[in-house]
Automatic annotation (TrEMBL):
Keywords, alphabetical: Membrane, Transmembrane, Transmembrane helix
PROSITE patterns per UniProt: EAL, GGDEF
Domain of life of the source: Bacteria
SUPFAM superfamilies: EAL domain-like, Nucleotide cyclase
Full protein name: GGDEF domain-containing phosphodiesterase
Residue ranges of domain GGDEF in the record: 80-210
InterPro entries recorded: Cyclic-di-GMP_PDE-like (IPR050706), EAL_dom (IPR001633), EAL_sf (IPR035919), GGDEF_dom (IPR000160), Nucleotide_cyclase (IPR029787), Rev_trsase/Diguanyl_cyclase (IPR043128)
Organism taxonomic ancestry: Bacteria, Pseudomonadati, Pseudomonadota, Betaproteobacteria, Burkholderiales
Transmembrane segments: 6-26
EAL domain boundaries: 219-472
Length: 499
């Protein structure tokens, strides 16, 4: 009987443990289901939040992609078309850097509000990146272009903010579905069209053209090759002589960059220089040009050719703090005096009233470099600024030289520029001289040096040597003579001793 009692107690205890375990298991499953449900809710809330931009409240990139999927499903079902407008605020990042992130955020909010107030019913608007908006609306290319035109006018009204007011300009690209690509390419193609507008100065719009993608791929490949061009020895300097307007003897030479691509042949500087500037390659290329020009000039000096060599200095280089130090190092390395090196700086860059540019000019002055203001007459120079610049030379832009024979206005402008230069004690070089008549007119106006196809096209360094060493004659062309600038203070500097 006692054993039976013990067995019942054991059985009861086992049943109790089983019920407890079962209860715990059921509770764990219930908790697990609660957690899973909560995770689903949080995930759904997170997904919903990701559809909207936190700053503007507009659709985010994920939101636009989701909306785009619905637009395409509807267009495919109905056999209709719709437009994607990609809008990029010009110079947004510059404004953001100038006034701070808070200002940039506020500018995006105000822009988004203005775009939203214009938005047609049934359309979608998103802020997909800093300074970038996307509009999806029904219609063909004509509707898209008309919408872009209206948006430009809408955004042209100044935006008031705590720093004053800002007039926005935008670059807009229009792409149409299905004509301009499937879902994966439509927004990309609209952005390519906007980039095309931006590269041409912004403040406008255009319709996507498949050639734009081909051009972009071509440029991408070209940039990749350009990155290796220096190491592979594909870059070369050509030189165009400057001649004394009276004797027609060579007095100086301007270095001009050339790129010999192994497959494409000669690539124009008008193509690869802007690519270098946009892709961060101009610094390395500029350094190479300075050093190579000094190397060639050093070799010419050993041959007895003491002519000045000129190098074009870009606005980007002028804003680099170590530009003058790099020039000084190259001159020292190749045993050249600063007065034999000309920095040709365009008028527009020379007139920049920025701290970095002005400091570079002051360093050039202190070092004794010869400075020439290039393309003179095409900008808006201040006489006060010109007087302060450490320049010794003005170059009359070829636009005025080309019309000298046929235009009284061109002759008047050229004579005025030369007269201004003389009043400021500058020497004057005229570029783009192609005819004997132009040469004679410029000489009578008092021009000091001439440069152009009449005397020589840009030629390799070896050919320049031959030309400079030749005696002047009708067959051999202009010969070498000492620089016109021997009378200047800079040219009186003593040659650096050979090491």
């Amino acid at each position: 009987m006692a054993d039976f009692q013990i067995s019942l107690e054991i059985l009861a205890f086992s049943l109790l443990c089983t019920f407890i375990a079962l209860g715990l298991l059921l509770r764990e499953r219930w908790v697990s289901r609660r957690i899973k449900a909560k995770l689903v809710t949080v995930s759904e809330e997170k997904d919903a939040l990701s559809l909207y931009d936190a700053n503007t409240g507009l659709l985010s990139r994920n939101g636009i992609e989701t909306a785009l999927r619905h637009w395409i499903e509807r267009a495919d079902g109905e056999g209709s078309a719709f437009c994607a407008l990609f809008l990029n605020i010009d110079e947004f990042h510059s404004q953001n850097q100038a006034f701070g992130q808070a200002f940039g955020d506020r500018l995006l909010q105000l822009t988004g509000q203005r775009l939203e107030s214009w938005l047609p019913d049934g359309s979608d608007l998103g802020c997909v990146n800093d300074g970038e908006f996307v509009v999806l609306l029904s219609g063909n290319s004509s509707v898209g272009l008309d919408a872009a035109r209206q948006l430009l006018q809408k955004l042209a009204v100044p935006l008031a903010h705590e720093h004053g007011s800002t007039v926005l300009t935008c670059s807009m690209g229009v792409a149409v579905y299905p004509e301009h690509g499937a879902r994966s390419r439509l927004l990309v193609n609209a952005s390519i069209a906007a980039r095309q507008v931006s590269r041409q100065g912004g403040g406008d719009f255009c319709l996507y053209d498949p050639q734009m993608s081909a051009d972009l791929r071509e440029q991408t490949l070209l940039v990749a090759d350009l990155r290796q061009a220096i190491d592979k020895g594909q870059l070369e300097l050509y030189f165009q002589p400057k001649v004394d307007a009276k004797t027609l003897h060579i007095t100086a030479a301007e270095a001009l960059l050339r790129w010999h691509h192994p497959e494409r042949g000669h690539v124009s500087p008008a193509i690869f220089i802007p690519l270098a500037e946009r892709n961060g390659l101009i610094s390395a290329i500029g350094n190479w040009v300075i050093d190579e020009a000094c190397r060639v000039a050093g070799h010419w000096r050993e041959l007895g050719l003491r002519m000045r060599v000129a190098v074009n200095i870009s606005g980007y280089q002028m804003r680099q703090e170590d530009l003058v130090e790099r020039i000084e190092s190259a001159l020292s390395r190749h045993h050249l005096q600063p007065g034999r090196f000309t920095c040709e700086i365009t008028e527009s860059v020379a007139m920049e009233d920025t701290k970095g540019t002005q400091q570079t000019f002051e360093r050039m002055r202190a070092m004794g470099l010869h400075v020439s203001i290039d393309d003179f007459g095409t900008g808006y120079s201040s006489l006060a600024t010109l007087r302060r610049l450490p320049a010794s030379e003005l170059k009359v832009d070829r636009a005025f030289v080309s019309d000298l024979a046929d235009s009284e206005d061109a002759r008047s402008i050229a004579a005025s520029i030369i007269g201004l230069a003389k009043a400021l004690n500058f020497k004057v070089v005229a570029e783009g001289v192609e005819t004997e008549q132009q040469s004679q007119l410029l000489m009578r106006m008092g021009c000091d040096e001439l440069q152009g196809f009449l005397f020589s096209r840009p030629i390799p360094a070896a050919e320049m040597e031959r030309l400079a060493l030749a005696a002047p004659s009708e067959t051999s062309g202009p010969g070498f003579s000492d620089s016109l600038f021997n009378a200047t203070v800079v040219a009186e500097l003593v040659e650096l001793p050979k090491r």
